[in-house]
Amino acid sequence: MNVDPLNLCHMKKIINYILAFSTACGILTACDDFMEIHQKWIEGGEIVYATKIDSVAVYGGKERVKLGLWTYNATSVEQLVITWNFGTDSLVMPVSFNAGKDSMEVVIDNLPEKAYTFNVNTIDMYGNTSLVEVGTGSSYGADFEGGMNPRKVRSIVMGEDGGEITWATADEKVIATQVKFTDADDNAVELTVLPEERITICENIKSGTGFICRSLLLPEPAAIDTFYTEWSEPVVFPANLDRTGWQIVSCTSEMAGYEASNMLDDDVNSIWHTNYQTGDPFPHVIVIDMLRQVQVNSISLTRRIGFPALQGTFRYEISSDNEEYETLGEAVFGDPDVLEFVLATPESGRYIRLTALDNKTGTTDTSVSLATFEVIGTYLSK
Q1: How far apart are CA 217 and CA 214, in angstroms?
Q2: Which of these, 337, 248, 334, 239, lies nearest to 287 by C-alpha position?
Q3: What is the CATH number of the domain that holds 299?
Q4: Closest Cα partner for 272 from 293, 290, 286?
Q5: Closest Cα to residue 200, out of 159, 241, 172?
Q6: Are residues 275 and 343 in the same domain?
Q7: Three-state helix/strand/coil letters over the chain
Q8: CATH no. for residue 132?
Q9: Of 196, 211, 237, which marks where a domain is finished?
């Protein structure tokens, strides 16, 4: 079949025109669909937002929080809107920001103890509302207070400079501990102890008294409120106890005029001496009644001055009822006139049983003599 070249060219042009027209119709139809989808978003003109808060930080406190807010070029903003509890609670307040970087703080009170999410946005002078910036944080109250741990006292001793407190390691939330005591001039003294301090000296503390303490805690590092533990019960420093009224319950050997009760006065020339006339054998046992429960830290014996051979080894025992005794240990007199027996751990009791086991005469003489008996400790009962 013969085809005219001119007719063939004409047909191709017609086909191309038809394809181009169909494509154009498809594009126009697609554009109509696109505009229909977005029509609802552009009705009434474009949406303009107020300058938003750049960032929000929330700092916890005692049933309240503080919001730290930061902005940039928010000079047109006139109102701040904060909502929480899923929008059921809100705070609206007038504000004014400077050009460039600016910030402000807002405290929200009366917040029960729990975690919160705060939604913050702004409204400008044209009535436009900003996008929301979110901050989270917690308020604190009775639950936190109930779990607070005050810094613990590891040990207390009386030193040359006063009462010495050794502290245990502080809880990470403790920022300080307060100590109160009365000095020898009856002045009230208060000290602040930081967590890194391990030893506190209560200088010139009044004899026979102690101290009270409490700790200061922050529930979080940047909290706006400090929480305080209750003041402790008085902690009394060990002291040389007043022996007025103390009694000798029993003594296995003593001379008339040199009774064991002489050890309980303050006169070193008034002594106890075993009965050298009868030559009572070792051991020589004395039971002392301190009349009250005592926490004993150490016991001091002073020898009869000028007679160093009449003292040797002593055993110490303690009891609350004068029936069952616990052995504290033994100590031997050396060159000093005073023998200090220091307990590794303080022990409590009312009665001390002191037993002389030997002397240093180097002979068959069984005599023993002491000038004073003293206890360093604290009374536990009245």
Answers
A1: 10
A2: 248
A3: 2.60.120.260
A4: 286
A5: 159
A6: yes
A7: CCCCHHHHHHHHHHHHHHHHHHHHHHHHHHHHHHHHHHHHHHCCCCCCCCCCCCEEEEEEEECEEEEEEEEECCCCEEEEEEEECCCCEEEEEECCCCCCEEEEEEEECCCCCCEEEEEEEEEECCCCECCCEEEEEECECHHHHHCCCCCCEEEEEEECCEEEEEECCCCCCEEEEEEEEEECCCCEEEEEECCCCCEEEEECECCCCEEEEEEEECCCCCCCCCEECCCCCCEECCEECCCCCCEEEEECCCECCECHHHHHCCCCCCCEECCCCCCCCCCEEEEEEEEEEEEEEEEEEEECCCCHHHCCEEEEEEECCCCCCEEEEEEECCCCCEEEEEEEEEEEEEEEEEEECCCCCCCCCCCCEEEEEEEEEEECCC
A8: 2.60.40.10
A9: 237
* pLDDT tens, residue by residue, 20-70: 555 555 554 545 555 555 555 456 668 899 999 999 999 999 999 999 999
Q: Are residues 212 and 257 in the same domain?
A: no
Structure tokens at 165: 């407190």
- Which pair of structure tokens corresponds to residue 63? 């049933």
48 lies in some domain: no
Mean pLDDT of 307-326: 96
71 in a domain, yes or no?
yes
Clarify whether residues 256 and 212 are in a common domain.
Answer: no
State the residue range of the domain holding 354.
247-379
> When comparing pLDDT for 208 and 299, which is higher?
299
Amino acid at 227: F
| Residue position matching structure tokens 């420093």 | 237
pLDDT of residue 138: 98
- 148 and 220 in a single domain? The answer is yes
- Which of residues 199, 219, 237 is at a domain's end? 237
pLDDT of residue 33: 53
Q: For residue 72, what are its two tokens?
A: 């940039």
Number of domains in the chain: 3
